[in-house]
């Protein structure tokens, strides 16, 4: 029986058309990247549908390939439900075979419960409407669905103890959130490590990093700040981010000790409700 082919996504169609136009123009990915002023790896991501170009990059693609604004116009029809700086990350994490995430003072979005996510969005959107808040929560929770189909991606979760102690949404929400993480760790769905306060300084004190690896593409790293983020695909910089993550991981508690701490902290929150 012939294998049923999955329908191509709009992103994949965009990337395939880009590849066809490039080949028709007799250009290599390297030649296009020089005109767009980016890495050949990024052009490869575009053509595979793993990433979309920015509006400026789409305009440069049109100039390099002499496509009269074709890719810039099509890009406008591929609006994302995510913020511009996070949109490529959301797409890539669905294709990743391994994810390594770090939570400094917050539980990473990929693991958040509804109550936890709602409290986070409510805190930074003081003038929100109920509809906007609900939409943000639904979008956040939809990311976690990729963890419902094991065995991939393999997920490493490194949490600062501050993420366990910061009372987001109150004790009931925290008990539920930490209970979810403990349950996933016990089930083998994620590898859990906690950086306890007793460690003091560690390699990730000054920022967050999100690492993704793939079967048929180079790994990437993502760093984020307030209302901004940067996806890194330069091999040297990605390697440096991986090294920093490994340094912090070496200072963390073991998986079993981390699980015990998360479960004990969840129980403490649960007792506060009684």
Short description:
The chain is an alpha/beta fold and 274 residues long. The protein has twelve helices and six strands. It has a six-stranded mixed sheet with strand order 3-2-1-4-5-6, with helices on both faces.
SSE layout:
Layout: H1 10-24, H2 29-36, H3 40-48, H4 55-65, H5 70-75, H6 87-93, E1 98-103, H7 114-124, H8 130-143, E2 154-160, H9 161-165, H10 171-186, E3 191-195, E4 210-213, E5 220-225, E6 228-232, H11 235-250, H12 255-272
Parallel strand pairs: 1-2, 2-3
Antiparallel strand pairs: 1-4, 4-5, 5-6
Helix pairs in contact: 1-3, 2-3, 7-8, 10-12
What overall form do the CA principal axes indicate?
elongated
CATH names the topology of the largest domain as Endonuclease, Chain A
Alpha plus pi helix count:
12
Strand content: 5-15%
* N- to C-terminal distance: 58 Å
Query: What's the mean pLDDT score?
Result: 91
Spans where pLDDT lies below 50 across 5 or more residues: 1-6
Widest sheet: strand ordering: 3-2-1-4-5-6
Q: Profile the largest sheet.
A: 6 strands, mixed
**Overall number of domains:** 2
CATH class of the largest domain: Alpha Beta
Which structural class do you get from the secondary structure elements? alpha/beta
Q: Strand-and-helix sequence, N→C?
A: HHHHHHEHHEHHEEEEHH
Count every beta strand, where a strand is a DSSP E run of 2 or more residues: 6
Helix content: 40-55%
Radius of gyration: 21 Å
CATH-defined architecture of the largest domain: 2-Layer Sandwich
């Amino acid at each position: 029986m012939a294998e049923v082919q999955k329908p191509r996504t709009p992103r994949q169609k965009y990337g395939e058309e880009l590849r066809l136009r490039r080949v028709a123009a007799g250009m290599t990915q390297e030649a296009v990247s020089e005109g767009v002023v980016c890495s050949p790896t990024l052009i490869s991501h575009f053509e595979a549908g793993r990433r979309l170009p920015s509006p400026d990059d789409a305009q440069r693609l049109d100039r390099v390939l002499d496509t009269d604004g074709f890719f810039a116009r099509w890009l406008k029809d591929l609006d994302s439900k995510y913020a511009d700086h996070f949109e490529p990350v959301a797409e890539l994490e669905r294709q990743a075979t391994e994810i390594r995430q770090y939570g400094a003072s917050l539980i990473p979005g990929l693991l958040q419960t509804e109550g936890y996510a709602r409290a986070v969005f409510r805190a930074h959107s003081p003038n929100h409407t109920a509809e906007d808040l609900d939409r943000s929560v639904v979008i956040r929770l939809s990311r976690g669905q990729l963890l419902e189909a094991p065995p991939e991606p393999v997920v490493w979760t490194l949490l600062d103890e501050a993420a366990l102690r910061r009372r987001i949404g109150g004790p009931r929400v925290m008990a539920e959130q930490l209970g979810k993480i403990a349950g996933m760790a016990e089930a083998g769905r994620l590898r859990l490590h906690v950086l306890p306060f007793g460690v003091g300084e560690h390699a990730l004190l000054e920022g967050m990093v999100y690492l993704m690896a793939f079967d048929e593409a180079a790994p990437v790293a993502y760093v984020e700040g307030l209302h901004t983020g940067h996806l890194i695909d330069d091999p040297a910089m990605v390697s440096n981010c991986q090294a920093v993550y490994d340094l912090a991981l070496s200072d963390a508690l073991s998986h079993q000790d981390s699980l015990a701490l998360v479960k004990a902290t969840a129980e403490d929150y649960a007792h506060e409700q009684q």
